[in-house]
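Input/output pair, single chain:
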Amino acid sequence: MSDLEWYKYKGKSFPFIRPRQVSAPGIVRPSPEEILYGDAASAAQAPPPPLALLAKGMGQARRKPPSVPNRATNAPPAPTATSPSAPIQIAQSKIPKNTPAQQKRADSTFGDFRKRLAPREGGYVNRGLQKDPGGPTNKGISQKFLNDLRTNKATRKQWRHLPAQTKNLTNAQIDDILRKEFFDRPQIDRLERVPGLARAEPTLAEQIFDASVLHGTAVAGKWLQHSLDEVLGTNLKVANKTTGKHEYDGTLGSDTRRKVEQAVRQGKSKEICNKIVDKRLAYMRANPRLKDNRGWIPRAESFRC
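Output:
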């Protein structure tokens, strides 16, 4: 149902088919002019548009905005193979860029952390889902985590080239995953660069990296934030946009790093490090799969200051 009309626009005549506005009760549909010009007042003052221009405007109005997933909240749980079934957020934030000097330091730090992580994670193992719900693991990368990387909307573009099975991952691919998802993205390098931390307590940043691989980046970050609040009397909780509740977000952002620097100045960085160890042990001992993973306790204790 429509009416054919002719309009003059910039000295030329254009045919225009005006669709009749059919609305359900209580719903007011905008006219074509309102779709193009944004509101009724502007539409009334503006000259009638040519058909091509109107079609372009209506097309833009109907086009849906792209959906951008929140990596910190929408990513599905992805326990590592040695993890006590901890939900791992695939990513917390965009990877920040470093200066050349910072990048050189980050490369060196990751190399050291990765070298010491290797014996703790071991090689390829497949112990069955009852003992390891993450599935077959290759040097710390579980099958479930690999599946999430390859299929999750937030990460599949970057990681879809990976093989479908963990046993087929190369050492270079494993190093790349560990570097980008457990070191760069949670900003471990920036934590390690907190003034004075490398001298006062060099194992703190490495423990967060190790806990991220074993338990998940968000879980490790929350333990750090909780420990800082307990020792310093600060409050790093933020309002959850969905629930409104104040809770730890696990992000190693500028606020968290400033509190780490405060702990260094007050000579409390070792206490923070040990608090994190205690939280890891409590978390492990509450997990029914501890009996099948006797290496968890010594691994956490190795970071005690």
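The chain is about 50% helix and 10% strand. Residues 77 and 153 are 14 Å apart (CA to CA).
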